[in-house]
Amino acid sequence: MKLNIPILSVLIMLVGCSSQIKTTTNTSTSLKYTQFVDPFIGTDGHGHTFPGATVPFGMVQLSPDTGIEGWDWCSGYHASDSSVMGFSHTHLSGTGGGDYGDILLMPTVGEIKTEPGTKANPDEGYRSRFDKAEEKASAGYYSVNLKDYGIQAELTSTTRVGVHRYTFPKSDDAHIILDLKHGISDSPRDTWFEVTSENEIVGLRKSSGWARDQYVYFVAQFSKPFASVAGDREGELLENVKKLEGEKGVKAVLNFNTEENEPIVVKVAISAVSVDGARKNLNAEVTDFDFDRVQKEAERTWNTMLSKIETEGGSKEQNTVFYTALYHSMIAPNVYMDVDHQYRGMDQKIHTATGFTNHTLFSLWDTFRSTHPLFTLVAPEQNNDFIKSMIAKYEQYGQLPIWELSANETGTMIGFHSVPVIVDAFLKGQTNFDPEIAYEAIVAAAEDEDRGLYWFNKEGFIPREKESNSVSKQVEYAYDMWCVAQMAKALGKTEDFEKYSKRATYYKNLFDAETGFIRSKDMYGVWAKDFDPMAISLLGAGDYTEGNAWHYNFFAPQDVNGLMALHGGDEKFAKLIDEMFLQEAVNDNHMAHDVTGLIGQYAQGNEPSHHVIYLYNFAGQPWKTQERIRQVMNEMYTAERDGLSGNEDCGQMSAWYVYSAMGFYPVNPANGEYIIGSPIFPKVTIHMDNGNDFVIEAPKTSDEAIYIQSAKLNGENHPMTMITHEQIEKGGILSFDMATAKSDWGTALEARPTSFAILPSEADQITDDEPYIFRPYVTNESLIFNAETTVELKNVIDGVEIFYTLDGSTPTTNSTTYTNPFEVTSSTLVKAIAVDTDGNTSAVADFDFKNAYYNTGDTFPSLSINYKKHPSYYSGTNGLIDGVYASDNLRDGKWDGISGQNFEAIVDLGDAKSVSNISIGFLENTGSWVFLPKEVIFSVSEDGENFTEVGRTGTDMPNNHPRINVRRFAQATAEGTNARYIKVEAVPYMKLPAWHPGAGNNTWMFTDEIVIEE
């Protein structure tokens, strides 16, 4: 199918918000790009998209909810369902976590039901069955027939207003349920509604979920007056209600008398600020009840945005997949500001945006890779708003967003990927923001000591026992540091440029030449045991984030040439990528849902693999890129409901396809270069906001003709297998000659793209040759022993000397030289250093050996506790007395998590024994809601009934996030103390403090080994 589309020059202008769009030149009104948009793509499988109505970057996403719990219902809808529980106004697009689903409406007839009922038996509640064949969805529109009620439901929206049209049968018992309890995987904390006129109801749903503290105020107006209004609070139905409130979620029943085929139109405006803000939004965006007008305007808005990229040729399916992908890439981030520019900030205060439109929902671990770079091509003004929103969040919260949702930092995923988004726009000259404030913000992110950065910045690597997902964080932090370095260089900050350039090479510090993989080691430099490159670990546990060693072995987009050198050069590097595709396509962990779309161990369904295919170009084998890119586009993207191989992830899965279908991809999302793949359309035109058009021509391309034979840029030979953003912005024509056989185009050394974290010309100036000396380590499996133990000191570096002390003093080269293992028979603090032949010294290693009682599988010591073990934070039956310390990593499996209550543990030694000291460990990780206890109390007893307190220790509540650490609380006993029972109690700071983003919620205590010394 050939699309004869006129050349367009479209300039997107912001009028109060990023999705109120007008064109500055005449455009074709005959072509509807929206005809190729199918919002149902991604609603089956694990795509997690929603089919409902929204506009580009809109604050409202009005969509049906078929389920609100479970991984495949993160968006509230899944194609496997056959009943719907209503239509709510906020939804996440393609995420791996659930939230939103605020302000649900459900039209019904007959008996009043205020609970939704179940999928197994919809008749239990207000749910209705539906037939998927009767569903319709397009850009800005959704409709479905509610079979149980004979009601046709239709949805459309503006930026801040959702508009419903419910066509009822004749009934004296017609209702519209307003359910403020309803939400997707969250819990209401404060809800209320008030009937303010014969056809208006207003209110608030405040909830806690992924967004810990979310406010959604609303004003809903109906085209027909209410016959009466009832209310429901915790299952009690109240007649003739004007106002109702309740923490756990109140509901309104709006009653009507309807004629046959009578439509009732409902317009619902939302605001995170106030009811007054919602009313202003309503008055500004929808002044009447003309559903069709709003729908047409939504379609026009989408058509304007989609027209930024014009395809010619290609099959209907290719165009459907392409324009639906472009549509999905423009759903988020969402406007998060009222028409008067007021918005709720990260400090939960109300702010007024000046000179930008505030946005929320920054899924940056996903979208920094290609979604935001795509915005620099087709939505640069909106992208600037996104960046200004990030900077405002930094000014309010002291941190750039990591994964921000409704003015709440969720801390989800890894890296500090606001940085490449900011730096990319800055280096492309799209700088409608203060670069000095932006630089201050990105440096603050790079110097934040949380999330493993303390170790990364100080030691050059993240030890596996100090931070979960240490390898994934290591490689992604290195990339982000490169981005900071590039902005420092552009701003003339030479010292910073050198410092952050060095850090950009730190990914190498976890490269194991023996296995050929980037993998984890501990703080002593010892590689993890039993390494399996195919073993998958989850977010928050293990060495990798939603992946394995194969997925992260190729992530150094800032230094691809350096990465190739580690692997032995371009031939070996290309062969290793080949091997990735030839591995067995298995996911060894059924919980790692995101590792999907497998070709061998390449996983298109999750982000870490997205750039890998394009790395063949750097190795001089671009025909392999062309082969594999076509394979992925053909196999992993279809026009069916399950047409996405993994979570859509707020546009990233789709942006990958948009780029790849056009024929290139930003391997390094911030260097302004695009690596060439294999274009699927005979012609693509990018209409840029500067008035220039960039055309990609491949007239011979087909499913068989996938190989590039030659290329020309503006009529001149183009041997390079990459193109720059600057070349695209100037406009012109990039043409490809395609054929069915591979060619030697792009194989020459001078034709290959290059990528150096430190340019060869700058290596002498920047390279740090100072060697790193690892700390000595002990071979003991545990530092807790009974009676005696042998201490053996080692170092991973050959030829170093080890010096140690046993009296707690800091060792020097004048201390005892280690030659042979030695015995300790009492609690002893061993400190050691390693020194190389040039006098370079390691940091001090300390090993606090304890002569103590612990459970070895025998009857005693035994443990009793006053709390129920949490399934995710559980160290085992006797985990607190098993002789093994937990690490700084809260998910290492050795911690017990307790929330909402005091902690009490009693250890029974079996008979009275000598006790000299009692200690217990607690984790402090306030960003994850884990606080030290307010007080720890130690007691002893001979009979288990009458306890004598031997001491207590208190803490002060911090006024900000301290660095993650483990603190051991210890209490010496009086000389000669004998006891059979040892009791340890801990009193928590029950609620998160006012300065914390989750203020008001319960804290957690994470507790570790109880050590009872002889």
From TrEMBL:
* Signal peptide residue numbers: 1-23
> A GO term (biological process) for this protein?
carbohydrate metabolic process
Query: Which UniProt keywords are present, listed alphabetically?
Result: Calcium, Signal
How is this protein named in the record? Putative alpha-1,2-mannosidase
What InterPro entries does UniProt report for this protein, alphabetically?
6-hairpin_glycosidase_sf (IPR008928), Galactose-bd-like_sf (IPR008979), GH-type_carb-bd (IPR014718), GH29D-like_dom (IPR059177), GH92_a_mannosidase_put (IPR005887), GH92_N (IPR041371), Glyco_hydro_92 (IPR012939), PNGase (IPR050883)
GH29D-like beta-sandwich domain segment(s):
785-844
What's the superkingdom here? Bacteria
Cellular component, GO, one term: cytosol
Describe the protein's quaternary organization and the partners it interacts with: Monomer.
NCBIfam families referenced in this protein's UniProt entry, alphabetically: aman2_put
**Can you give the residue ranges of the Glycosyl hydrolase family 92 N-terminal domain?**
36-271
Q: Name one Pfam family in it.
A: Glyco_hydro_92
Q: What cofactor is this protein dependent on?
A: Ca(2+)
A GO molecular-function descriptor: peptide-N4-(N-acetyl-beta-glucosaminyl)asparagine amidase activity
- The Glycosyl hydrolase family domain covers which part of the protein? 277-739
